[in-house]
Amino acid sequence: MKILIVDTYYPSFLAWFYGTNSAIQRSAYDAQIEALVDQCFGTADFYSRHLNALGCEVQDLIVNCAPLQTRWARENQFSFQEWSLRIPHRAYRIPLLGNLLARLPGLLDIAIEQVKTFAPDILYCQDLSFFPPGVLNTLKEHAKLIVGQIACPLPPSHFLQPYDLILTSFPHYVPRLRQLGIASEYFRIGFDSRVLEKLGAVEKNLPVSFVGGISRNHGKAISTLEYLADATPIEFFGYGASILNSRSPILRKHHGEVWGLDMYRVLARSQVTLNRHIDVAENNANNMRLYEATGVGALLITDRKDNLGELFAADKEVVVYSSREEAAELIKHYLANPEEAIAIAKAGQLRTLSEHTYAHRMRELVPILKRYYKESR
Questions:
Q1: What 3 state SS string does 204-236 have?
Q2: Which tens digits make up the pLDDT trace of 133-142?
Q3: Burial per residue of 329-357, b for 16 or more beta-carbon CB atoms within 10 angstroms, e otherwise
Q4: Cys-Cys link to 127, which of 8, 149, 180, 201 (CB 3.0-4.6 A)?
Q5: Are 186 and 206 in contact (CB under 8 A)?
Q6: How many domains does the chain have?
Q7: Rounded to an integer, what distance in angstroms lies between the CA atom of residue 10 and that of residue 331?
Q8: What pTM value is reported for the model?
């Protein structure tokens, strides 16, 4: 199968990447995309690399990255609305503006041309809001099966209708999508073991961390994080601190954004790390931190969810809390008893590396895609 994976990256990450690697935007398209995926941001090339190893022909697109996409257009003599992309990349850091810039007309034009050029059997979209519904319907002439994947708030239903299949790591989304008349399957996320090779040896010199975003999607978590900021030695890393009240106790312990390998490095440095799901996860365990933290060998303390036992053994491979007070007590306990923490962290890492890597996931994905692709022909 020929598969084209369409992804978008956080505008703040792109601003950071090109701000710290200013010369790279003058490089060839292949060099730029290689440098971007080497950062291990999001799912990077975790899908394509393993799918290619399984015999598929797969390419990645990062369709909201203006320097990258502009370079592709120039190398392929494709004419587009270039004026719309002549914007300093630091502008992508501005809240709301960054998301608008990521959907400029020129970027959409280039992405459409890339789909036509590659002519995939399967168009695999990691961002269900990038292509407008009318565009997706047009792209059905150039891709035999259009697949989406989601683990965030659902976009409006008219954005969902053109998809032939939507995969989701939220179990509760599957019946909701099917009720809309959209084929849907449960498909979990995971960890890529190559991250460990890239990190090398990392000293565990950070007692306890929270690594993640703070946004309206994490609204119920903020009070818990603020309580823990006062009650424990937790340190915070990630985006979104600017939305906090100026008196928030998180701010005095917040170290700013960390992306890609830097994010993994903070997790690997942590003896203990806290996880909290976004509101739309409801009662289901599902976020990337479950696998990222255990994958690099940190003791994960995560919020209790109904299906967590399907992924990890509570109190043996991860530790579970039901309230902010319980989370604080657990953090204090495992900092005071490092041997227990190490034993659980090692068991969690073993579970992830033996069952939850992207090599495992892609072996699960291929039969799903083959089945739906065969039915679409």
A1: CCEEEEEECCCCHHHHHHHHHHHHHHHHCCCEE
A2: 999 999 999 9
A3: ebbeebbeeeeebeebbebbbebbbeebb
A4: 8
A5: no
A6: 2
A7: 30
A8: 0.92
